[in-house]
Amino acid sequence: MPDTVLEAIKLGLWDFEPKDVEGEDFDACGAMPGTPAKLLMLAERVRLGLPLWHPADRQDCEDTEE
User: Fold this and answer.
1) What is the pLDDT of residues 46-60, one digit of tens each?
2) Are 45 and 6 spatial neighbours (Cβ–Cβ below 8 Å)?
3) Could you tell me if 23 and 56 are in contact, meaning their C-beta atoms sit under 8 angstroms apart?
4) How far apart are CA 49 and CA 33, in angstroms?
5) 39: helix, coil or strand?
6) Would you give per-residue pLDDT tens digits along the chain (66 residues)?
């Protein structure tokens, strides 16, 4: 059984769902959505077999300097 989505794809398992992981078991991302930093964090989560989204991930652009 694969541990990550990437492993599942290599095995041809297109209906793979990663194991449930609680939000306190991995770090939230403070990077703004769509930024290179956010995309790097999402890629790392995929590599580690973690959920893409953390409940405390930044979801907006508020509190940014112009």
Assistant:
1) 888 888 889 999 988
2) no
3) yes
4) 20
5) helix
6) 888 888 888 999 988 877 788 888 899 999 998 899 999 999 999 888 888 889 999 988 776 655
The amino acid at 12: G
Residues 6 or more apart whose Cβ sits within 8 Å of residue 14: 8
Long-range contacts of 34-39 (CB under 8 A, 24+ apart): none
> DSSP secondary structure string, 10-35?
HTT-TT--PPP--GGGS----SPTTS
Q: Which residue has the tokens 């405390």?
A: 56
Dihedral Cα 40, 31, 54, 24, nearest 10 deg = 100
